[in-house]
């Protein structure tokens, strides 16, 4: 997760494990299928959490590297999914953690937790760590979510919705604005816990 109140994230992971379980998200399944179709061999997952969205890639023969701020989540990932997955302990706002280039990046339900400068940096850092002609996929919460416009107003389309968690709510226009220089080529609506967008980019498309 992002570097926002780490103590909140640490204390919430057991609750999130119970809520989300160990089944991968719809977005992870769709992204896995797409990455397999594109012969992706290794991926980076910023904000990997406790790994529920990582195993499906590993099961398809894709090497996974993660970034995660929560030590609790990293320990849970090792316990449930094995210790052969490299996970850097730190905030995605401190990327890059290595000089590697990846065939794919999958970033699930993270970017909307960041402020504008952090979002720009995350997109740029992920793009920079891709091989030319390869892919990154983000999921982001939509303005169609019932929580949009609720809570404390921070700035345009950004609200503190609960327990200090700040969210930026996307529409197609804001996605295009933020991702157009990162090879954006597809925006798809998808229903997860909330209405999300699945955002696909290809390095070299812009």
What labels describe this entry?
seven-stranded mixed sheet, alpha/beta, 206 residues, three-stranded antiparallel sheet, globular, 31% helix, 10 strands, disordered N terminus
Described by the principal axes of the CA atoms, the overall outline is: globular
DSSP strand (E) fraction?
Answer: 25-35%
Cα end-to-end separation? 28 Å
The parts where pLDDT drops under 50 for at least 5 residues are 1-19
Structural class of the helix and strand makeup? Answer: alpha/beta
Q: Mind telling me the C-alpha Rg? A: 16 Å
Question: If strands are numbered along the chain, what order do they take across the biggest sheet?
Answer: 3-2-1-4-5-10-9
Number of strands: 10
- Tell me the number of helical segments per DSSP (H or I, 4 or more residues long): 6
Q: How many strands, what sense, and barrel or not for the largest sheet?
A: 7 strands, mixed
The chain-level mean pLDDT equals 88
Helical percentage: 25-40%
Secondary-structure element order, N to C? HHEHEHEEHEEEEHEE
Description:
This protein is an alpha/beta fold and 206 residues long. The protein has helices spanning 6-20, 26-37, 55-59, 71-81, 116-128, 172-179; strands at 42-46, 63-68, 86-89, 102-107, 130-141, 152-155, 158-162, 165-168, 184-191, 195-202. A 7-stranded mixed β-sheet has the order 3-2-1-4-5-10-9, with helices on both faces. Strands 6-7-8 form a 3-stranded antiparallel β-sheet, with no helix packed on it. The longest helix is centred in the first third of the chain and has 15 residues, at 6-20. The radius of gyration is 16 Å and the shape is globular.
